[in-house]
Design brief:
The chain has ten helices and twelve strands. With 367 residues, it is of the alpha/beta class. The longest helix is centred in the N-terminal third of the chain and has 21 residues.
């Protein structure tokens, strides 16, 4: 490695504990193979692989660019009631969007990556890969840390036919067919206003040292929604897992990033592997703040929607009419939810209509 090892010495120190943790997880969760990915067989070879990757990631050249560039949609989830009903609704609309696109669709297969370690009763309804969870206590109560570890297992153990992967989430509803937004070797991602690498440069330099370039190389993204080359993701995922674990063990990073820590970890890992992203504000909307669906592809219903009967938003106060996914943690929403009153944004109306259609057509809803 020569001088490169010296330049990345701070990062090596920061991640050394988590790299050891990775090896412990691998060895304790047979039948995972020690050889994935080859760049993680030792810390030195890991840093060589990062340095050698050109910024911008892998490219598809020549005649391949004229072919359909299929992507596989992957969603991580637990077997909780809360995650399960969202996944069922999500997969219902995935199938409808894909079918409506016709034979030219670039939407390929779908996988729910179930990270609780055992099958559930929806294996036949939703294509599912069962991943092992992190060892007990390793997530420190931050269950999202299972996401990168689940992706590592899925990418290693599954023969994914498509060349690209769309990382999505249970609380995404696909409104219309999604094309492959990847272009010229760049990934495609949604920019989040609350992911601010420049603001947290001091903390992030522990994981993305100055020798790697300006902190603005870190895109303001999470891991979802992101479309990225499969081979790029195979390189990113183990780093994403290790950086997530290292950040969670770092009091300064844990305090700075809070519930979006794993998102920062993905953004850093993507930058470390030279994979930049085209930022697509039209990738998705987030009601009630985004009022119109327009030409967007995904509705992300992460925020509660509270309104009075005049159609005015009462955010921070439970509304006379409301839809909030957190109201359905222990049981799924009932069929035929009451529609919002006049004056509520079209995005919220569309969301409730789509949830109602899915629940009306999915078998044994609520059982």
């Amino acid at each position: 490695m020569g001088c490169c090892g010296t330049l990345l010495y701070p990062l090596l120190i920061t991640l050394s504990v988590s790299l050891i943790t990775y090896n412990i997880i691998i060895s304790s969760n047979a039948p995972l193979k020690q050889g994935f990915p080859s760049s993680f067989s030792s810390s030195s070879s890991f840093y060589d692989s990062v340095i050698e990757l050109p910024r911008g990631g892998s490219r598809i050249r020549g005649n391949n660019e004229r072919k359909r560039r299929l992507f596989h949609t992957a969603v991580t989830a637990s077997d909780s009631v809360y995650n399960t009903w969202q996944c069922r609704v999500m997969y219902y609309w995935f199938k409808k969007a894909k079918a409506s696109a016709g034979p030219g669709s670039e939407m390929g297969g779908f996988t729910r990556i179930l990270h609780n370690g055992k099958p559930d009763k929806y294996m036949d309804e939703i294509p599912t890969f069962v991943a092992q969870p992190l060892p007990s206590g390793m997530d420190q109560g931050y269950v999202v840390l299972n996401r990168p570890w689940a992706f590592v297992q899925w990418l290693q153990q599954t023969d994914i036919k498509e060349d690209y992967v769309l990382m999505s989430e249970p609380d995404h509803i696909i409104v219309k067919p999604i094309p492959n937004l990847v272009k010229d070797g760049f990934g495609a991602a949604f920019p989040f206003f609350y992911i601010e690498p420049k603001k947290y440069e001091k903390v992030l330099r522990k994981y993305y040292p100055e020798e790697r370039g300006p902190v603005t190389n870190i895109d303001p993204i999470g891991n979802s929604p992101v479309i990225v080359g499969k081979e790029d993701l195979k390189k990113i995922a183990p780093t994403w897992m290790n950086v997530s674990l290292a950040m969670k063990k770092d009091p300064e990073a844990d305090k700075a990033f809070g519930w979006v820590l794993e998102m920062y970890a993905y953004a850093v890992s993507s930058a470390l592997h030279g994979v930049s992203n085209i930022l697509h504000k039209d990738f998705m909307i987030q009601p009630p703040w985004d009022k119109e669906v327009g030409d967007k592809y995904i509705i992300h219903y992460t925020y509660g929607c509270d309104f009075n009967m005049k159609g005015h938003l009462t955010y921070g106060k439970i509304g006379e009419w409301r839809f909030d996914k957190r109201s359905y943690i222990k049981s799924p929403p009932p069929k035929n939810l009451t529609m919002p009153p006049p004056g509520v944004p079209q995005s919220v109306v569309t969301l409730v209509k789509m949830v109602n259609e899915a629940t009306a057509n999915l078998p044994d809803w609520g059982s």
